[in-house]
Specification:
The chain contains 7 helices and no strands. By secondary structure, the protein is mostly helical. The radius of gyration is 60 Å and the shape is rod-shaped. The relative contact order is 0.05.
């Protein structure tokens, strides 16, 4: 049995081993509990004491200022009375209208050759519908109306660049058309006189025939 005793452990050997294992487990339990507590404190944002125990500094929170800086006021749009707004709008419209009118009248102030071509285009457009005499009389009225204006252009730039040339061109066309009108009237007057004379001769000849 001695051989068997040395080969197989006895009961008291198992008891000693169990007691040694239990002691080691009891000694390790407080350290594990402390480690778990420290881990929980770090993960959940624990107290400053736990953070300091593991070398972590507590967060520093700045205290709210007792005298905050005043907010910068927003600039307010300048209030313009309605009457001034209407006057400004009317002034812009007048300026735009003056520019448009001067652009349309710029053809009157071109070179004599350019103006002659412009007048010829107008005559070719209207004279076939009204005849030479009626066109000349109507066009002369239009030209006289232009020349009677104190100023042809509505802006200072238009007057300085085109006024003198436009008046010269209008006056030249007016003189030409007045000459044409006189010739037409003379022709029409001569024809009318010839018709009247022919009618008078025919009438007197007929009376003489009846008297005989």
């Amino acid at each position: 049995m001695a051989t068997t005793r040395h080969q197989l452990p006895e009961l008291h050997d198992f008891e000693l081993a169990a007691a040694s294992t239990a002691g080691a487990a009891a000694a390790a339990a407080p350290a594990a509990a402390a480690g778990d507590g420290a881990s929980a404190a770090c993960a959940g944002g624990g107290s400053a004491t736990a953070a300091a125990a593991f070398g972590a500094a507590a967060p520093i929170v700045a205290a709210p200022s007792q005298n905050p800086a005043p907010a910068t006021p927003r600039p307010q749009p300048e209030h313009v009375p309605l009457q001034q707004q209407d006057e400004a709008l009317l002034q812009r419209l007048r300026h735009d209208a003056a520019l448009l009118l001067d652009a349309d009248l710029s053809a009157l102030g071109g070179s004599p050759q350019a103006y002659a071509a412009y007048a010829a285009d107008i005559r070719a457009e209207y004279q076939p519908h009204y005849g030479a005499a009626a066109y000349a009389a109507g066009r002369c009225r239009v030209l006289r109306g232009f020349l009677q204006r104190p100023e042809l252009y509505f802006t200072s730039r238009g007057r300085s660049q085109h006024e003198a040339a436009a008046r010269a061109n209008l006056a030249a066309e007016l003189a030409e058309l007045e000459a044409v009108a006189r010739e037409v009237q003379a022709e029409e007057g001569g024809a009318e006189a010839a018709v009247v004379e022919a009618e008078a001769i025919a009438s007197s000849g007929g009376d003489n025939g009846r008297d005989e």
